[in-house]
Design goal:
Elements: H1 2-24, E1 26-31, E2 39-41, E3 44-46, H2 48-57, E4 63-68, H3 71-79, E5 85-90, H4 93-96, E6 99-101, E7 107-116, E8 134-138, H5 145-148, E9 155-159, H6 162-170, E10 176-180, H7 181-190, E11 197-199, E12 205-214, H8 220-235, H9 238-246
Parallel strand pairs: 1-4, 1-5, 8-9, 8-10
Antiparallel strand pairs: 2-3, 5-12, 6-12, 7-10, 7-11, 7-12
Helix pairs in contact: 2-8
Length: 251
């Protein structure tokens, strides 16, 4: 009798252990400073991504904790399973080997070139116009298949971030900076360079931003739950409203 009781007690304890992680698990979502998408301020973390993750996952019993890191570090953390969710990566073949992406993106960026105002350098989409020019690219960023197919022909200079790249462009150490409009415009204004640097048209590319997870089987259910919740937010217009609140484009 005692043996039967102990077996039942053990079974009940195992069931509690299996159920508890789903109802009380804390998730770590990491990313870099993406204006409007993921930012840190005096009161904590904010942006479209934090709003989406909280509204999508907290009703399912998850608690989401956020951390901001340099972009390369954030990617490394999630690829190694040290973080649960990577905020905002664009998708390409190399990253799909490292991460499992959400089914739907949650924002869209315009990738563009910036140049010093008044410079005669032209850009109409023909990469032959850029040969020999010093073009700044941000470390760890993806610029789209068209740009990537031309990398070997171009004179690329890797910069640590948008701010660093804009300063180098303003100082004449670059001829162009390739960046995304959403990230760059607020930094341009903050640096007082809006009257010295200008954006070129047409865009280099359009890139959609996703949530990404470690490529481990145990993350499959979490990814599926987020996919369902995000799809519902899209269908009910919640994502569009949040994007308008944060002034971020969506697909």
């Amino acid at each position: 009798m005692c043996s039967n009781f102990l077996r039942r007690l053990s079974l009940a304890f195992c069931c509690v252990l299996l159920i508890a992680p789903l109802s009380a698990r804390e998730l770590l979502a990491v990313g870099s400073n993406f204006p409007g998408v993921f930012e840190q301020n005096g009161s904590g973390y904010s942006g479209l991504a934090t709003s989406v993750l909280r509204q999508a996952l907290e009703p399912l019993g998850y608690q989401v904790r956020f951390e901001l890191h340099p972009w390369a570090r954030a990617q490394h953390m999630v690829a190694r399973g040290e973080g649960d969710i990577l905020i905002g990566p664009y998708k390409n073949a190399a990253r799909e080997q490292l991460f499992a992406f959400s089914a739907r993106p949650f924002y869209r960026d315009h990738i563009v070139f910036y140049r010093p105002r008044g410079r005669g350098l032209r850009w109409d989409g023909d990469y032959q116009q850029l040969l020999g020019r010093r073009i700044g690219v941000v470390r760890g960023w993806v610029y789209g298949a068209h740009f990537d197919s031309r990398r070997e022909q171009l004179k690329l200079v890797t910069v640590q971030g948008v701010e660093n790249g804009l300063k180098m462009l303003g100082a004449g150490r670059l001829d162009l900076l390739a960046s995304n409009q959403r990230n760059t415009q607020p930094v341009l204004v903050a640096l007082g360079l809006a009257d010295k640097l200008e954006q070129l048209e047409p865009p280099i590319d359009l890139q959609d931003g996703y949530f990404a997870f470690p490529r481990k089987g145990r993350y499959g259910p979490l990814r599926e739950e987020l996919d369902r919740a995000l799809q519902q937010m899209i269908e009910q217009g919640q994502l569009a409203q949040l994007a308008a609140d944060w002034q971020v484009d969506i697909p």
